[in-house]
Amino acid sequence: MTEAIDVDLCVIGAGAGGLSVAAGASQMGASVVLFERGAMGGDCLNVGCVPSKALLAAAHAAHGADVAGRFGLDMTVAPTDWRRVREHVRGVIAAIAPVDSVERYEGFGVRVIPAHARFTGPRTLEGGGVTVRARFVAIATGSTPSVPPLPGLDGVAYLTNETVFDLDERPSHLLVLGGGAIGCELAQAHARLGCRVTLVEAARLLGPEDPEAADVVRLSLRRDGIDVREGVSAVSVGRSGDGIALTVNGADGAETLTGSHLLVATGRRVSFEGLDLDRAGIATDERGRLVLDARLRTSNRRVFAVGDAAGGPQFTHVAGAHAGVVIKNTLFRWPARADNAGVPRVTFTAPELAQVGPTEAELRSAGTAFGVLRWPYAENDRAQAERSVDGFAKVLVAPNGRILGATVVGDAAGELISVWALAIAQRLKVGALAGLVVPYPTRAEIIKRVASSWYVPKLFGDRTRALVRFLMRFA
Ligand SMILES: Cc1cc2nc3c(=O)[nH]c(=O)nc-3n(C[C@H](O)[C@H](O)[C@H](O)COP(=O)(O)OP(=O)(O)OC[C@H]3O[C@@H](n4cnc5c(N)ncnc54)[C@H](O)[C@@H]3O)c2cc1C
Ligand SMILES: NC(=O)c1ccc[n+]([C@@H]2O[C@H](COP(=O)([O-])OP(=O)(O)OC[C@H]3O[C@@H](n4cnc5c(N)ncnc54)[C@H](O)[C@@H]3O)[C@@H](O)[C@H]2O)c1
Description:
It contains 15 helices and 21 strands. By secondary structure, the chain is an alpha/beta fold. Strands 1, 2, 3, 4, 5, 6 and 16 form a 7-stranded mixed β-sheet that branches. Strands 17-18-21-20-19 form a 5-stranded antiparallel β-sheet, sandwiched between helices. Strands 10-9-8-14 form a 4-stranded parallel β-sheet, with helices on one face. The chain binds flavin-adenine dinucleotide (FAD) and nicotinamide-adenine-dinucleotide. Flavin-adenine dinucleotide binds next to α1, α2, α3 and α8. Belongs to the class-I pyridine nucleotide-disulfide oxidoreductase family.
């Protein structure tokens, strides 16, 4: 016999989005049921952000030995013991997992049901032998790798982010299909850990990013020995001995690349298969995405969507922000709206590439009036001391001084970008950042220096010089 329960909120999916909704709502007094058919923590913890950043940390440590000569040191790293690196990655996941665990959520009073959920009516769901009637529902079912329909692909054991972190052995030659965030991060991680890597990108590396910033990342990937092929499309896949043959087509014609492994990193898609959305009267568009309003409500006003399932930017911090919108709308009847305008993003290559607000190209194509402020890492003393001077900050400023957007590429760009995110969210003008006193020597000085450059033409111009000369007469 199925158990039937009534709750305030039913959450489908225990990834970054679903967990944030469940944790917030339950601690604020709502009764919450959380369905998860796989691992608690979803993609970010298990097969996404966390393992990729852990692998990159190992890769950057190995790279440290490669560049030790810059510091007058000689260091060598023994060939990578892949299983030990894999254990490191698993160890990082295990260290974070308790935060996302069933036990912790049960501690909040959440009923966690380890099963696939599906709608049976506008406000009812079932899964794991439990029927749930909920006042509100949050769909937080995430996304999965979007694998292109390449002839021959199904005949080979290709990798995605769901399998690449589980390899027993170091790939001798990794072919990476796709030069977005996943492709670039994982290409560099593997290259720095001693794999030969070829990266194939149909368009341009990190396409939506500022091209000048992407150039800095491209150069770094090439310095790491990655064979970066852009403007090259995959045509078919086949076997080649023990390995994989990837046939590509570009300006120079067709070519077959062979490698030991193939990682497919060509984007992610949302799918609501098996959720029976029609039973709840939830509409999707022609591409199968949920039709949502600004409050993240589906066409069934009691059902919301958060995170990747919402069909917008795919980031853990966006999923977290969505959770806040849903909690306000459901628990407090506060018509909060999701706003992606000031959401920062970071690609965690070395150097990191971070963006908040529109890029220079986006502002130009929108016809917005703006000026560009720049500051190179090479003029930052900390970057010089650490011999890591590749990169720059570029800040886009309205004629009245308001900060519209910022691009940073370089070490710790992901840390620096939050200051500009705050500036944009609070509609600050450059003066607010130019006036900051920041500790020396830190990369944060770049924030102050680039903002101060707004005033340079005025401050060090003829009028100021004339004024100072005049005032000095009376001093
Ligand atoms: C390799 C990689 C690296 C990434 N790195 C970063 C990064 O550095 N920074 C960043 O911000 N973002 C990163 N992302 C993106 C980030 O992982 C996602 O945006 C984030 O995980 C989305 O969270 P979510 O809760 O929407 O979905 P998910 O984490 O995918 O969680 C959805 C959950 O729902 C469950 N589910 C689905 N359907 C049902 C059902 N019917 N019943 C029950 N359960 C169901 C799934 O099992 C899953 O656990 C990365 C992604 C990848 C793939
Ligand atoms: N640091 C981070 O925050 C981070 C890291 C990884 C992933 N993510 C999230 O995950 C999402 C998915 O990442 P992704 O890198 O898979 O997707 P993506 O959409 O960013 O990049 C996919 C790339 O693959 C290329 N491509 C598609 N089909 C191809 C083909 N047949 N041949 C060659 N190239 C092809 C595209 O031109 C594109 O550049 C990202 O949008 C991002 O939101 C975030």
